[in-house]
Design a protein that fits this description.
Layout lengths: L5 H7 L2 H13 L14 H10 L1 H4 L3 H13 L15 H8 L7 H16 L1 H6 L7 E5 L6 H12 L2 E6 L10 H14 L4 E6 L17 H15 L3 E7 L17 E4 L5 H12 L10 H7 L5 H22 L7 H9 L8
Parallel strand pairs: 1-4, 1-5, 2-3, 3-4
Helix pairs in contact: 2-3, 10-11, 12-13, 12-14, 14-15
């Protein structure tokens, strides 16, 4: 299969070939790895190289691989991915519009959820579950819900986003009935993705809960077992407090896998700042490399707030002076200084 761009090329290369590219770029000073390259597996190498995709075209090794794949149509063995599906690099572009960074998390969603639903015959051949279940966890503000929502909407499958706390009622048995209706409706729409937001709100640890409030958790456990028997439905739970969930939900056979969404690293912060700022009238003097350093430890939500708050300050100047304004570095500093509540910190 001939490739048309660097993204597709990275999806086809082996770890040894990716390591060759990374070492050449490092030796030429194009980028600086955080850790020794020998510590990176193939997934981590692809993630690292995609961050520097614009510089890769200058490397002789990349040109060599591009020529080889373009001229000979060489490709990786077809046993790893069904031949009818696009390569991983193209899927990452298609399934996550507007998502910057989170490379590893995106790859896991494709591998664990999308591929089994999109190629069930091939997945069944290898014993892969056709009803994948996973828990997406992490601290608030790091884009868990946004990541999963964009993925489900772009997947082309039937999807339902369920605000789990809204299922609860004061009527005995009504919450359980609503759960059953949701799951049984999804059986008619396979392949389907069900997303439970704030899943810990309705299915807490039964040992820490009042006995008469444990019905929804017990019903959900039974429904997960039923889902596993009827392939074609993926269940994704999203939570900030995985430790509050009932332990029975976290065992294999219920939620099989877990994705931990971490705060953005330097490259992801730089990507967030530069991409979102591109749509706003920021001064050309602003150094996004410096601001990626300043915002170390910030969540994705906090970084976006800083940009919006800086834009708001420029908007007020426009209102007061009656002329278009640029967003200055002083506006960014003020966004941090006055914090999220408008009070000076």
């Amino acid at each position: 299969m001939a490739v048309s761009n660097l993204e597709e090329l990275l999806g086809l290369l082996s770890r040894r070939e990716l390591l060759q590219i990374a070492r050449e770029g490092r030796d030429l000073g194009y980028f600086r790895p955080t850790y020794p390259l020998s510590h990176y597996d193939a997934h981590a190498l692809r993630r690292f190289l995609r961050r520097h995709i614009e510089r890769l075209a200058r490397l002789p090794s990349v040109q060599q691989f591009l020529n080889r794949y373009t001229k000979t149509g060489k490709e990786r063995p077809s046993t790893s991915t069904p031949s009818s599906l696009p390569p991983l690099a193209k899927l990452l572009q298609q399934l996550f519009p507007g998502v910057y960074g989170m490379e590893r998390e995106r790859e896991l969603l494709v591998e664990w959820v999308y591929l089994p639903l999109a190629a069930p015959k091939e997945a069944q051949r290898y014993g892969v579950s056709l009803s994948p279940t996973l828990l997406v966890e992490g601290s608030p503000g790091n884009g868990k819900s946004y990541l999963v929502r964009q993925f489900s909407q772009a997947s082309g499958f039937y999807h339902r986003i369920i605000h789990t706390p809204a299922l609860a009622t004061k009527w005995y048995g009504e919450t359980e009935r609503r759960l059953r209706m949701l799951i049984h409706a999804a059986f008619k729409e396979v392949p389907a993705i069900l997303i439970f937001e704030e899943i810990d709100a309705l299915f807490p640890d039964r040992e820490q809960n009042l006995e008469w409030l444990n019905g929804p958790t017990q019903q959900f456990l039974l429904l997960l077992d039923e889902i596993k028997e009827k392939p074609g439905i993926a269940v994704i739970g999203i939570t900030n407090r995985a430790q509050k969930l009932d332990p029975a939900l976290l065992r294999p056979g219920r939620f099989d896998k877990r994705i931990h969404v971490t705060p953005p690293d330097y490259i992801e912060r730089l990507l967030l700042l530069s991409r979102y700022a591109h749509t706003m009238p920021f001064s050309k003097d602003v150094s996004w490399e410096k601001w990626a350093e300043i915002t170390a430890g910030y969540s994705r939500a906090e970084i976006l707030f800083i940009l919006r708050e800086a834009g708001f300050r420029a908007f007020l100047r426009h209102y007061q002076e009656g002329t278009p304004q640029v967003i200055r570095e002083e506006d960014l500093y003020a966004s941090i200084r006055f914090g999220w509540g408008g009070q000076e910190t």
